[in-house]
Amino acid sequence: MSDEQHIPGATVTRLEHDRAQIEALEDRLFAEIEDSGFPTSSQFAIRLALEEAVTNAFVHGNKNAAGSDITVEYAVEPGRVCIAVEDRGQGFDPDNVPDPTLEENLHKPSGRGLMLIKSYMTRVWHNKAGNKLMMCYERPDATS
Amino acid sequence: MAAHESRLRISREGPVTQIEFLDRNILDEANIQAIGEEIGQIIDETGEPKLLISFSNVDHLSSAALGALITINKRVNDKSGALRLADIDPQIYEVFTITRLDKLFQIHENRDDALSSF
Fold first, then answer.
1. Cβ-Cβ contacts under 8 Å, B102 against chain A
2. Domain B8-116: which topology?
3. Which residues make Cβ contacts (< 8 Å) with residue A12, sequence separation at least 6?
């Protein structure tokens, strides 16, 4: 999956920077996740990663440009949830993000989103341009 | 523009200002900014602010919320005050440890322990 640039079989949604739209998407996504039997710990992890990815897309990707949108893809399988978030920006180098856990960065109020995504999701990767993040969460107790 | 309705419950226990969140999810950037401004005003209005922030109602928070807490912590320290965090759910506490922010904040298991620490 980690070379894929799209999530196979995904539901695709465009989102504006509007809290109601974001929450409506999360309601649909987490209804599927809960129906698939993912425990609350998994739901916590996925919600946090999705929120961070969406915020990064609007704030850093789209530079908070008024009227800009992002595209979110998601697919829920019995043992795995995959999500992609694409912004309209120029992209960035995900390997060149300062480590927020270093002493000199602990007091900084921002810069933790990508680290949290990588901590909570099983696999995280970007497209070549760096403006699309893809991530999958695999249930720890799922059998392949 | 309408004033942002407070999303906090604020009470006083002697010199300590206790703050609780009304929302279970501290995720929305606009809400987080408003919360930061409201707590900032409390800090500005108090000589050596002693703040206790309880997370007893909180199920989810984002890194933007962590950023607001960092800013609050700095402003409290700049006024020679003290900040304590308490009642943090284990899943949320893990976010603090993953980000190493458990080293930056004084975190207590419950409100009583936090109050005793001032």
1. none
2. Transcription Regulator spoIIAA (3.30.750)
3. A71, A72, A73
Phi, psi of B48, deg, nearest 5? -120, 85
* DSSP characters over A18-85: -HHHHHHHHHHHHHHHHHTT--HHHHHHHHHHHHHHHHHIIIIISTT-TT-EEEEEEEEETTEEEEEE
Which domains are assigned to chain A? 11-138 (3.30.565.10)
For chain B, which residues make up each domain, given as ranges?
8-116
Interface test with A, best of B27, B66, B76 (most A CBs within 10 A): B27
Which residues of A lie inside 8 Å of B (Cβ-Cβ)?
Answer: 19, 41, 44, 47-48, 51-52, 55, 59, 100-101, 106-110, 112-113, 115-116, 119
* DSSP per position, B3-51: PPPP-EEEEEETTEEEEEES-SEE--HHHHHHHHHHHHHHHHTSSS-EE
Q: What is the ipTM of this complex?
A: 0.93
Minimal-distance CA residue of chain B relative to A107: B70
Which pTM was predicted? 0.94
pLDDT in tens, A98-144: 999 999 999 999 999 999 999 999 999 999 999 999 999 999 876 55
